[in-house]
């Protein structure tokens, strides 16, 4: 180590290394954001406590209801979801429930679990662009063109399984109600509906918002940064992961694979010229 490159270590320097405003602990004390934990226990619901810990302020009752609705709607989508399937398979391999849950959570990437974050980014772009574009529709058109130049998929819209996601309408209905009550301003809801309208133009079958789009509206209306929407999705989906992992444990199966043992994967035999050592 070069002399003088780092200051002489001190106790205060080590303590400052982990400076945080989230939680303080001391012997016999636990405090979150300046509030003793005993003052939160029994007085604060889990969703409001999550908001408080992440954001540092308390949500209004209307804001807490919206966040709770988004979390409830995203809990699970059955074992055909890769994360759930992986949790169930992992649970039969002799690992603990924490390992099964971690294995599942680690699959929640850009393609499976990331569309909500991407949709918040898209809606933020539409809302920001509407000020200079002259209208929400023009801004949405510009943003869609830009997104389509990167991918044929528009995050938060369309579903490979549901012609119309059953979670869309109740979630958007709650946002509309919250707007009427003054809880949110509704700008991102309007942006999402404009995008949905543009995507439906010239099509026999529309491309409605899916769960990622509907919850993105909620997270954006509540002012959460895009990346936090993925974090909240992970928290929500962890409930489904836990439920499926535990159910699989009760079945007693060992080493469960992705397909029943009676069904073998399709094998494409290489042509003779592709086989190692063949002339």
From TrEMBL:
<dbReference type="InterPro" id="IPR016143">
    <property type="entry name" value="Citrate_synth-like_sm_a-sub"/>
</dbReference>
<dbReference type="InterPro" id="IPR036969">
    <property type="entry name" value="Citrate_synthase_sf"/>
</dbReference>
<dbReference type="GO" id="GO:0008816">
    <property type="term" value="F:citryl-CoA lyase activity"/>
</dbReference>
<keyword id="KW-0808">Transferase</keyword>
<dbReference type="Pfam" id="PF00285">
    <property type="entry name" value="Citrate_synt"/>
</dbReference>
<dbReference type="InterPro" id="IPR002020">
    <property type="entry name" value="Citrate_synthase"/>
</dbReference>
<keyword id="KW-0456">Lyase</keyword>
<comment type="similarity">
    <text>Belongs to the citrate synthase family.</text>
</comment>
<comment type="pathway">
    <text>Carbohydrate metabolism; tricarboxylic acid cycle.</text>
</comment>
<feature type="region of interest" description="Disordered">
    <location>
        <begin position="250"/>
        <end position="279"/>
    </location>
</feature>
<dbReference type="InterPro" id="IPR016142">
    <property type="entry name" value="Citrate_synth-like_lrg_a-sub"/>
</dbReference>
<protein>
    <recommendedName>
        <fullName>citrate synthase (unknown stereospecificity)</fullName>
        <ecNumber>2.3.3.16</ecNumber>
    </recommendedName>
</protein>
């Amino acid at each position: 180590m070069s002399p003088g490159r780092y200051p002489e270590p001190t106790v205060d320097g080590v303590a400052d290394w982990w400076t945080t405003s989230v939680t303080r602990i001391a012997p016999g004390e636990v405090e979150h954001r300046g509030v003793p934990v005993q003052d939160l226990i029994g007085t604060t619901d889990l969703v409001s406590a999550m908001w408080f810990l992440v954001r540092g302020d308390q949500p209004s009752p209307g804001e807490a209801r919206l966040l709770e609705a988004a979390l409830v709607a995203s809990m699970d989508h059955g074992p055909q979801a890769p994360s759930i399937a992986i949790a169930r398979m992992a649970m039969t391999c002799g690992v603990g429930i924490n390992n099964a849950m971690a294995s599942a959570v680690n699959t929640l990437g850009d393609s499976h679990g990331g569309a909500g974050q991407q949709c918040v980014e898209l809606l933020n772009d539409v809302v920001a662009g509407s000020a200079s574009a002259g209208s929400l529709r023009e801004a949405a058109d510009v943003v869609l063109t830009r997104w389509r130049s990167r991918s044929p998929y528009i995050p938060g819209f369309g579903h490979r399984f549901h012609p119309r996601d059953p979670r869309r309408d109740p979630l958007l209905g709650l946002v509309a109600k919250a707007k009427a009550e003054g809880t949110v301003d509704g700008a991102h809801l309007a942006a999402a509906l404009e995008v949905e309208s543009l995507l439906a133009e010239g099509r026999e079958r529309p491309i409605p918002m899916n769960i990622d789009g509907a919850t993105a509206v909620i997270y954006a209306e509540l002012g959460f940064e895009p990346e936090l929407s993925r974090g909240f999705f992970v928290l929500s989906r962890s409930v489904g992961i836990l439920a499926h992992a535990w159910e699989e444990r009760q079945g007693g199966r060992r080493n469960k694979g992705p397909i029943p043992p009676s069904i073998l994967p399709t094998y494409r035999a290489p042509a003779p010229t592709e086989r190692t050592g063949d002339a």
